[in-house]
Amino acid sequence: MSRPHPRLTHRADARIILAMTSLPREQESERILREYESRFEPMMAMLERQFSVLHNRAQLLLTLCGIVISTTGFSGRIIAGTNVVAQVLIVAGVGIVLLSAAVVVWGVLHLRWLTVQPGETVAIWLDTCLRYRDKKTEAYRIGIVLMLIGLTFYVGAICVMLLFPHTDGLAAR
Prior knowledge:
This protein has 173 residues and is an all-alpha fold. It has one domain (11-163). 74% of the residues lie in helices and 0% in strands. The chain is built from 5 helices and no strands. The protein is elongated and about 70 Å long.
């Protein structure tokens, strides 16, 4: 039996810490099979909800990518007109944001229906579906990291423009 964290004083605190950890996929699969009594239909509904959340978040990330790319179309020339540093930062930022969008579109929004996932038994099918979900989740996380890196470069270009509004190129308006 595991001991609670030494700083925790209440059982509720211990439950919070335990809730923040993740189960290995095998234990998650066992829990789902147990809780849903290996019934296909409710497990399918639960997985569909999880994929829906993942796809909705991917759509949000793509919206942010679109905003960055659209904004660059309006202000990119002015920012890039500041100096070479701003040019490199804005090109790198937009490029990385575009890469983020590509990872999300291909890795998360690429479809493969749950009903065509292989598996001789419900347990094997569930494991295949969980692996598929985890693969999409990983692509989403990579997309988020790329988006944040791209935004960092993009904001860096804006900072350069604001710090040097009349250097080397177009004057600030």
